[in-house]
Amino acid sequence: MATLGEILAAREARYRRQRAWLTRYRAPLLSCSLRIPGPDKQSPRYRRAFEAILAAVEKDLPEGTILAKVVLHPETGSEALYAVAMAPEMLKRRMMAMEEEHPLGAICDLDVIDRAGQPLGREMLGAAPRRCFCCGRPARLCTREKRHPLPEVRAAIDGILDRWEGIG
Questions:
Q1: Strand arrangement of the beta sheet that strand 108-113 belongs to
Q2: Is the pTM of this model over 0.70?
Q3: Pairing of strands 29-34, 66-72
Q4: Measuring CA to CA, which residue among 144, 139, 145, 114 is closest to residue 31?
Q5: How far separated are the first and last CA of the chain, in Å rounded?
Q6: pLDDT per position as a tens digit, 106-117
Q7: In whole angstroms, what separates CA 13 from the centre of its chain?
Q8: Beta carbons of 38 and 154 less than 8 angstroms apart
Q9: Which sign does the torsion angle of CA 7, 22, 72, 50 carry?
Q10: SS3 31
């Protein structure tokens, strides 16, 4: 299990890594992680799901567009970073489609950062915000309002994983 301090430190390290890659590769970045709330962010099941998402992402990207890739599996949750030779808006549209259409898309964050270091939001491209696992409202609202207790959210995530694994 990851502590809050470890989770915050991992976010800071991810930010520093992204900044270094923007300088090094001068290309848009794709940052991948799982949307797993709470302190328990690592398990064999989550790792399998994460690897499946990465395989789908790599299959979706045209050959030769991945300039660099790093995959990490700390206790704070699996994460991957790609430098991608593609227009950031096109990359974001592809990743939004993956989040919406892939069986595991709801539990992954596929964030795109442009060459200037600015994240591209869904709303910037005219897309609806991410939906809550539990009720379908905008996820940011439910998170901010603490609308659903952690066990309810984790049960919804387990349901997504069960369907993907053919259990549910």
A1: 66-72, 79-84, 29-34, 108-113
A2: yes
A3: unpaired
A4: 114
A5: 26
A6: 999 999 999 999
A7: 16
A8: yes
A9: positive
A10: strand
